[in-house]
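User: I'm writing a tutorial on reading structure tokens. Could you give me a worked example: one chain, its sequence, then its tokens, then a sentence or two explaining what the tokens reveal?
Assistant: Sure. Here is the example chain.
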Amino acid sequence: MAATSEQTLKLWEDKVTAHVKVAGSGPALVYLHSGYGLVWDESLDLLARDFTVYAPEHPGTSAGDPDAVKPLDDVWDLVLYYYELFDKLGLEAPAVVGHSFGGMVAAEIAANNPRRVSRLVLIDALGLWRDDTPIKNYMVTPQAQLDVLMFADPKHPARKHVSMNLEDAESIIRLTWALGCTGKYIWPIPDKGLRKRAHRITAPTLLIWGKQDGLTKPIYAEEFKKVIPNSRVELIDHAAHMAQLEQPAAVAKLVREFLKH
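And here are its predicted structure tokens:
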């Protein structure tokens, strides 16, 4: 595992403490995690070989700081919060990589102020909606039904990072609260108008999707491609919604090659 440090920064009139894990060296890469909380996985280790990876935890998902979510009311607040974080970190226009819920936030950041994102990578992102292919509410779906949506191999060892261990009360509390903190911004469906703003994204965009994603099915990759100019899709086989957990080397390779060219 790459050597990581943690930065804590006061934002939003000092009402929110941002917790940011940092590793590596080189050009800046901001990684925005899914609704399950930050998992520092192998793909981030691999990317830290070429980039300075900044991985902030969404407000409220940091251990010991559950109330940090309260000052932010909606997606627009969250986007402005991340602009403040970029400013505090001294990042004018970093590359931004977002997974699932983090992908939705990354796209909103790039759409609302296109100059703040140099390159954009969305991995199995939320943010759009099709009535003919609804996205299951993963926050209330039983774990047994979720596993086959999230993983091409439902018994993949990495599922422990996003599964509730019924014998571990701390695990249940941590994941439930993380899902609640991020769910605040996507309830009841994860379409808050991004479709009508996505045309404003000017950053070259890579859409990475697990071929077997059962939550945001690959048709959503094509939907994002339709609405984001200068975007392309890469499908990863033997991967579902948690593509970077199942195929970390493949995801990191695609991201690295995209950001370096």
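What the tokens reveal: The chain has nine helices and eight strands. Strands lie at 5-11, 16-23, 28-32, 52-56, 95-99, 119-123, 205-210, 231-236.
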